[in-house]
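User: Can you write out an input/output pair for a complex, sequences first and structure second?

Assistant: Here is one pair. Inputs:
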Amino acid sequence: MLTRLSSATKEVLIGDGGPTVLIGERINPTGKKKLAAALLAGEMDIVRREAIAQVEAGADVLDVNVGVAGLDQVQALPVALKTVMDVVDVPISIDSNNPEALDAALKLYKGKPLINSITGEEKVMASLLPLVKEYGTAFIALTMDDDGIPTDVDRRVAIAHKLVNRAVQMGIPQEDVVVDCLVMTVATDHVAGATTQEAIRRVREELGQNITAGVSNVSFGLPDREIINSVFLALLIGAGVNCPIVDVAKVRPLVLAADLLLGRDEYSARYVKAFRERQKALEAQAAQAAQAT
Amino acid sequence: MLTRLSSATKEVLIGDGGPTVLIGERINPTGKKKLAAALLAGEMDIVRREAIAQVEAGADVLDVNVGVAGLDQVQALPVALKTVMDVVDVPISIDSNNPEALDAALKLYKGKPLINSITGEEKVMASLLPLVKEYGTAFIALTMDDDGIPTDVDRRVAIAHKLVNRAVQMGIPQEDVVVDCLVMTVATDHVAGATTQEAIRRVREELGQNITAGVSNVSFGLPDREIINSVFLALLIGAGVNCPIVDVAKVRPLVLAADLLLGRDEYSARYVKAFRERQKALEAQAAQAAQAT
């Protein structure tokens, strides 16, 4: 199953054994005070800088989220979106559940974006799926519904089925539903990681959907989170995640290694190319540092 | 399926959702000149030191290999084995395919060891399986046979079936067969990593055996091997490996994270305990360094 996203000039394909697609997570004010303040002030410098930096680091898609308390998303989301579209050419994951803000953003978006995200809650589906249909976008289906986030695999998989069925009934192509099986912390529920992996495997098997995931929630409340997050990302890719939402600069070497180890990198070409680029960047840094002293 | 190994005083259980069992790989002269020279000279200091260090680092089982060109294994293997048994109390993986050396080693071993390894080659099965039966050991079944190492999943799985069937026919309990699906480098065959993972999944599904693996071959000939090996170990554990042969000090944090993320660590107890121990060790080092200056 192949999910196609696009910008005005660039197409990104997710799935069918292709390489893992990296969705850059950093244009999101959650936990980022400077970005939140800038967005409130209507300043787009950080957004612009993050967009460029993430694409340089290898992001295939950028997530854009302007969710700050007190900010009018209907006004701010299109501005942020346009800022990003002006400086990079990758497709965008428009990260909002505000129908008016999404509508305003979709009006100016050029290409086929991803909407992040739509839950299985009746009201949410009713207000957002028509936008997916109208603008011909893809969307991320979150496996939670009016009863919250299920702790068990069966119910998460059932919600994925429900969202896919509802979309297809409305005439949205099945491949435009990218599923997120949700990641909860293992600190309070020691099978949380296993539950997510099992749900992913089942959704891949039963529906064939492409799968996204955020990773870092899993280690909330635990020490040495970096290693937990890295190992979890590897496990999730092994289980079937093929377009994670990540800090691209941090995880790209790991993801390229995973693609290599899953048979998605003929002649190790992408892995070796990225290694050489990292080497060159390090050498350039060292040369600069030497000059500076 | 539970595989029980033991020393004179300690039992180790592999499988049934229990934590990953770490088999320490460092008592093996392949590529280690100092250890090779020491073994040739009959000196056991390095063996002793490595045994203690690996168990301190968290090894559950130690692999003991004395394969050096020109060394009489029949004499050397029992000596090395006794050396290890004298200083640590973990079960041992006796790493040899020399029947006389194994027989001499098994005569003095106290407990139930693992024999590493027995291939599907007719001559090898005929000479080594009787030792497994006679001494009641477990063994590692290597998925290669008289035609070499198959490049395809089906034939590797078929060899695993053959070795399990042959063992069971001889009265060896099925759970005493630990399967190694073999790891080849992705540099020359870009699906090599995927092949191993798929073979592991199939052996787990069709036979239920516990699974071991060495990891580092996969990155042979490639740059930045460390990250490839780490990601591969995570992927292999996700696929079903539950007693890898590893450099324990290097990989234990990763493996504890994997266990945590696969639901095998209630209350994150093992992960947090190991983290605290690492912190204490680092603090002790820092204190020593401060005193030294």
